[in-house]
Structure formats: C-alpha cells, structure tokens
Amino acid sequence: MRNFKKYIINLDKTKLFLIQGFLLIIMIISNFNTDQKLLNGYQFLFFFFTLLPIDIILVIIMLRGIFELEGPPRHPFHLMKYPAYCMIIFFGSSPFIIIWFLRDVISHLKW
C-alpha cells in the first residue's frame, strides 16, 4: 500500500489530465461508433471496456486529492476526505453496478 500511495502522490498532474482527456476522447468515439451496444454483445463489451480506464483515472485523481489534503482535523477541507472516500467506493464499484442493472439486457445480447 505504501508503494501505491507513493506512486499516486508522485504522479505528474499534467500527464494525468492528458491521459484522462485522451481516454475521454476514445470513450466518446467508441460511444458514437457502437450504435447497437444494447443489441450486440461485442459492441457492449467494447463500450464497457472503454469506460473502465476513465473510472480508474477518476479514482486515482480522487485519491491524489485526498493525499494532498493538509490541515488540522477539524478544517473543512480536511473533513472533505470522508465524502471523497464514499465517492471512491461509488466510482470503484460503478462498473459492476452498471453490469448488475443491465443483467437482463446482457442476457439477450446477440453474440
């Protein structure tokens, strides 16, 4: 965990946001090119796997923000780390929640 924390803290912000922008462009292009993602199983998987990197980058950016918080324990910005932990759990589990909500659609996809 310490190595992971050091790696996230030492990430360059500009590279991280450039990667996020690049992955967002790829996700938008895949969204426009998969017009039958709720009918064709392969298009659904392609679209789903373009969502995962954006989700991972958002979690990394939120963890980086939490690690940069400083101040006394009752400082409002310091207290924002607890809602951020809840958002990390939400964003981390969102791909699985999407699959769970679409379970009846996924079972009827054409493979």
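The record above closes out task 2.4. Task 2.5 opens with a second protein, given below.
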Amino acid sequence: MIILLAFLIFSSIASIVHFGIENPRINNSIYVKQSEISEINMYRENIKDIDDKYTNLVVDIFEKDYEIYKSIENMEMSEFEAINIMRNYAHVAYQLFIDFIKAGDSKYFVYVDYNIIHEFQYKLLQSWWSEQPIYERTWNIIYFEVLISENDNITEYLYKRTPWGELNLNNFLKNEFEFGTSDLINLINETRAQNIFWYSKTWEILYNYTQYGGVLNINVDLQLYDRIVQKYYEEPLLKLQNRRMNYDINLTLSSASVLFFTFLFDIFISKRPSHLKKK
C-alpha cells in the first residue's frame, strides 16, 4: 500500500510539472492568437471603410457622368470643366487604392506576417474532396473593377507596383482548375465603357488620371470575411482556451492529489509496527 501511495504521489508530482510547463506555452499561444485576431479585425475595419468609400465613389461618378453628359449636350458646360470634375474623382480613386495597398501590407502589423486578403483567398481554395461546404469553395472574397485599354498587356497592367507595396491582380483574375472559374475583376475598356458611361470622355479621363492602373472599385464580401475569421482563427483560439482550462483543472487536481496521497502516506507510516520504524 505504501509503495502504491508513493507511486501515486510521484505520478501527481509529474503531472504538476507537466502542466506547469505546458500552461505557459498555451498562454503564450493564446496571447499570440488573440493579438493576431485583433489585427485581423483592425484590418476588417480599415477594409470596410475603404469598401464603403469606393461604393460612394462609384455612385458619385455615375451620377456626375450623367450630369456632365446632359450639361455638355445642353452646352452648359465645357469639356475643360468636365475634365477637371472627373479628374477629381480619379484622384479619389487613386488615394483609395493607396489606402488599400497600405492597409494590407504586413509591415504595418506586429502579429500578422502575411497579406490578409491573399491569405483568406487561399483558405477558400479547398479541394473537391474537402469537407468544406461547396458554397465556400470559391475565392470571391474580393472584387475589383479596373479601367484598362484595349492596347494594354493585361498581365503586365494588372501587376501594380507602388512605393507603399505591390498587388498582383492577376491572382484574382481567374481560377480554372479544380475549384471552378471565378472572375473577380471587371475589366472596363474603351468599348465596354460605351455601354457604361453616358459622357463619351468619362472613361478616357478616369483612365488617364487614375494612377496605378485605374482601379475604380474594390468590393469585399465582409460576411465571407467573418466566416473565415471564425473558422480559421476564432475556433482554434477557443480550442486553445478550452485546453488551457482543462490543464488548469488537471493542475488543481494533481496538486490536491499530492496533498491527499501525502496525507495518507503519513498516516500509513505512522501506523507501521514499531519494530519496522527507523530507529
């Protein structure tokens, strides 16, 4: 019996050591995960703001385009005035694109060392045998509208280089493998522009004055964004937290076991026959 108690005490102490070592590791992992999620949520707010501003910009452009068309038709506005008005919208589009590039660059984060939109897009590219639901096996987390000329080389044109970072829009253009085809870029050239804008020179003005390749609109599926955060970040964090809770419980039980078995051990030692006790 004494040998058994000694073994139980030793096992409980070993458990205390194990959980005592593992708990700090788990706490550190939880801290890193929480910090990563915090930065991912911060990026969400930034991208939502950019998305909203792009939406407002596009609405304003279409409204002003029609207004200019009617004014030019009625000879109430000169083409010089029209160019100045539309050039201002082109500048706003340029600034929003810079904000988008800067928001996604990992150098602005401490715990996120990747471009979040690219990372999230990759997480959606699951194989056909994956257990992931069919509706999530797409990569339509983000959508671009880009002004492009029929004379441009599409591959070169869609690779954007800026002093604040780079963005290869070719990665969002097509996916024609096992995941199906998904066009996430609406390319607006001279011919297509005739069916989109009223004023004949709207496309030309926006194209010429929108730097870094005429990105006119960026739309992010925030509901899909949130599902990705929940599945790939919040759920693993919850598992870590549950694991830490189980370790805390086991650590408490192990400590109590040491006290209890030590108490029993002392009782048995004290009740040993006197001729077996150490002199």
